[in-house]
Write a structure and sequence with these properties.
Elements (H helix, E strand, L loop, with lengths): L3 H14 L6 E5 L4 H12 L3 E6 L2 H9 L5 E4 L5 H8 L4 E6 L3 H8 L2 E9 L19 H5 L3 E4 L9 H13 L5 E2 L7 H7 L6 E2 L1 H8 L4 H15 L4 H9 L14 H10 L2
Parallel strand pairs: 1-2, 1-4, 2-3, 4-5, 5-6
Antiparallel strand pairs: 7-8
Helix pairs in contact: 1-2, 1-7, 4-5
Amino acid sequence: MLGLIGITAYFGLLEPGEPKEGDTVLVSGAAGATGSVAAQIAKIKGCRVIGIAGGPAKVAWLLEEAHLDGAIDYKSEVVRAHIAELCPDGVDVYFDNVGGDILEAALDNLAERARVVLRGGIAGYNGEKPRPGPNNLMNLVMKRARMEGFIVIDCVRRSGEAIKQLAEWVDGGQIAVAEDMQEGPRTHRRRCSGSSRVPISANSYLESLNRRSTAETLTESRLSDAREFPPSRADVRQSDSNRTEPGGPDMAEPTRDDLNRHGEASK
């Protein structure tokens, strides 16, 4: 939330999307990590927000926890028709995380001067062949709309701005957070299948940020010090001179005085 995911949602929606109070904003992948944050930022900015997600549990979360104005279950509903029903005056901002058929359905329902933000294309990530492009791109011309790609690296230097504002919104309970923790090689497959997400409250998310143990903090601090202040060559030589050789003092390299004393004793 306060990393690249939140920063992507923040700048991706607010800059190329340019949402204005009263706009209708449509977000695909709206129960996903980036989409859920982008949708709620649009609500904070006074927009009417419709989310697209897969399955009744995700749709319920969008309506009950994220407080969107409407939600579409792409697994059980005709997306194109439902967008038209929920957005009778057209879509002013479309924040796209999936591409494919859903992108095409959104382009069919644009308002004049709409802004389309291409953030991701998860619908085609696992495909063996590239998916065909939308066949209705001329709608961009007819609606005098704009479609623009967005990559977060363009805004990384300004990440502090996004993190500060996102933290304030989460702390104020204006953004609900859904956390999903997985381990192992199935994680990516599970994410692409649309079966991830476990909703939690904003306060629970803030508590999770503070669950780091003292040992973890100390370890990170020592590693940071080691990287920032590496030992000098003099320190290394001094350390070597103080090292006890295996076997104790008797096994250490003899000095000239030791050799002289040994010679006198053997006479």
